[in-house]
Write a structure and sequence with these properties.
heterodimer, A: 319 residues, mainly alpha, MetI-like fold, 2 domains, 13 helices, B: 283 residues, 14 helices, 76% helix, 0% strand
């Protein structure tokens, strides 16, 4: 049994909530509250994301030397300086080589391992953890280990290559031809596990009935892979492609550890766009040129994303 | 007929065996650097520089750890990393919950514009913001080489806001109506109903933030210039530049730097992998 008064107030509250729900006053009140809730996010994003985004263009139009405190307007000069710098083009080329050299094996290996893991085997989660481990390892510490593996005289990589394939000892870190491959090997080791985990989730999301139907129709393993798995995984591949390319474009930490001080390796053989940027902005403190390089990086990434979005419309097959 | 069945089973076994062999080979490649790091960390110098190499140390030699610990202020680095990562994570979770709630459950002026603006920030590479943020922090705020510079800019993550918003959207509005009738305010409703219901999402956001903050490198490298403020990764990189090729202490320091994150990963593995796949597949 409920007390009478409770019922009355219950109905009153219901009425009130109806008015609140559809009244004009409610919308404005909710707007006020919403902005109170959003205030911290707006202040921090405003200060450290929106404002600097526009300021980056302003900075790139100014020269910060010889006087760091009083930049002078130079228009497009910083961009011209960068474009005329042979080292910039080399760093861009190295970056592209690193992106292609690491992303394609990462995705291929990632898919291959995910396919193996997706079969009926035991200890699935053990294997998944093992492959994923390099991805969670702090990149600085992981790069230190590779620094040791790449040692010319006592490094294990040379020893194993020599034992297995009779390769002569390679000076990975001081020979310009091997500097970038060294970074690529490290990149493949570190980031393949991420692709494995995402691909595995994608594979597990594919409806088994497709395979059953194909088997009934007499499709062999390759046909099932080619005409079911691959098309149905195309959104995953597309996602991984974008994420990996963008990530690889920004490679920095690994190179910074292998060749300390952002020197870019022997004869700048491992100078990538981010190392070039760091060297310009925080080595020489030519902030204007540094900002110009960073803005160029932004444009490159933006264009890559747009192109991939375009292509995805033709290639990606959504279930 | 019977023979065919046997052949089939044998084929299937060989096939499975092949899969195991490949997977184990791959696992060895993935795990080996960790093994080699730990093995080297426990070797005295005369066992490290050997050809052919010695796979295991003859005895546990702890001196490398002591040497590394004394050569650089690793105690301070670890304290800084823990402090910065913890404060950043707590603050970020708090602010993210507030913002995600506004986007998920409130109707307000400019919602769509703000939503798109927030979404747009995901297209901006953080590297582009380094120079302007450096100027803001060094000149306007005078935060260079302080904890503020390492914490405040990372207190909001748009990724976290969208992840949590997805969780909040799945909570039915009837709960809010019922709570309101019982006289529950919006703020209390958010923290006593929405937040507990979205625990997996919040844990994912917190976990990613903590690991991201612990591993942050370039930002800390730029924003600090003394050992007082350096975190583990930056301290480690500087130690590497100074120690050169003294691999014993270097591997000992790397082992120490990896340990907290690897432990965290082992304890939260399921959450972590779920979080990665969920956020990965959604976007």
């Amino acid at each position: 049994m409920e007390p009478r008064g409770w019922r009355v107030s219950f109905r009153e509250r219901l009425n009130l909530s109806w008015q609140e729900r559809y009244g004009r006053g409610r919308f404005w009140r909710e707007t006020l509250y919403a902005y109170i809730y959003l205030l911290p996010a707006l202040v921090i994003l405003g200060t450290f994301t929106f404002y600097p985004f526009f300021k980056a263009f302003w900075i790139s139009a100014h020269r910060y030397y010889p006087d760091l405190l009083h930049p002078s307007y130079v228009g497009w000069d910083n961009y011209l300086t960068v474009f005329k710098d042979e080292l910039f083009w080399r760093s861009l080329w190295h970056t592209v080589a690193y992106v292609l050299g690491s992303v394609i094996p990462q995705l291929t290996l990632g898919l291959f391992i995910a396919l193996l893991l997706n079969s009926r085997i035991r200890a699935k989660s053990f294997f998944r953890t093992a492959y994923f481990l390099p991805y969670v390892t702090p990149s600085i510490a992981a790069s230190m280990v590779f620094l040791w593996l790449y040692d010319r005289d006592y490094g294990l990589l040379n020893y194993i290559l020599n034992k297995l394939f009779h390769v002569n000892f390679i000076d990975w870190l001081n020979n310009p031809s091997f500097a970038l491959p060294a970074v690529i090997i490290l990149g493949i080791w570190k980031y393949t596990g991420f692709n494995v985990v995402i691909y595995l989730a994608g594979l597990q999301g594919i409806d088994r009935t497709y395979y059953e139907a194909a088997e009934v129709d007499g499709a062999n393993a390759w046909a099932r892979f080619r005409y079911i798995t691959l098309p149905l995984l195309s959104p995953t591949t597309f996602f991984l492609f974008i994420i990996s390319i963008i990530g690889a474009f920004k490679v920095f930490n690994e190179i910074y550890v292998l060749w300390p001080g952002a020197t870019g390796g022997p004869l700048n053989a491992a100078m990538t766009i981010m190392i070039y940027f760091y060297h310009k902005a925080f080595g020489e403190y030519h902030l204007g040129e540094g900002a110009a390089v960073a803005n160029i990086l932004f444009v490159i990434i933006f264009v890559i994303t747009l192109i991939q979005m375009r292509l995805s419309r033709r290639w990606v097959f959504y279930q | 007929m019977k023979k065919e069945g046997k052949v089939y089973i044998l084929q299937r076994r060989a096939y499975l065996l092949g899969i195991y062999v490949l997977l184990i080979l791959g696992t060895i490649v993935m795990i080996f650097p960790f093994f080699w790091m730990i093995s080297t960390a426990f070797k005295p110098a005369n066992e490290i520089q050997l050809m052919p190499p010695k796979w295991l140390p003859s005895r546990f030699y702890w001196q490398n750890f002591a040497d590394a610990w004394n050569a650089a202020p690793f105690g301070r680095y670890f304290f800084n990393s823990f402090f910065v990562a913890t404060v950043t994570t707590i603050g970020e979770v708090f602010f993210t919950i507030l913002a995600a709630y506004a986007f998920a459950k409130m109707d307000f002026l400019g919602k769509n514009v703000l939503f798109i603006a927030f979404l747009g920030t995901m297209m901006i590479p953080g590297e582009m913001l380094l120079v302007p943020n450096y100027l803001t922090i060094a000149r306007t705020l005078h935060w260079l080489d302080t904890y503020y510079a390492l914490i405040v800019p990372w207190l909001v993550s748009v990724f976290g806001i969208f992840l949590l918003r997805q969780f909040f959207l799945t909570i039915p509005d009837e709960l809010w109506d019922a709570a309101r009738i019982d006289g529950c305010g919006r703020f209390r409703y958010l923290w006593t109903v929405m937040v507990p219901l979205s625990r997996p999402g919040i844990a994912t956001v917190a976990l990613f933030k903590f690991i991201g903050s612990w591993n942050a490198f370039l930002w800390v490298l730029i924003m600090t210039n003394s050992d007082r403020m350096r975190t583990v990764p930056v301290g480690l990189a500087i130690f590497r530049a100074e120690a050169g090729t003294e691999y014993g202490p270097l591997m000992a320091a790397s082992t120490m730097a990896m340990l907290p994150i690897l432990l965290l990963f082992f304890f939260t593995q399921k959450q972590f992998i779920q979080g990665i796949t969920r956020s990965g597949l959604k976007s």
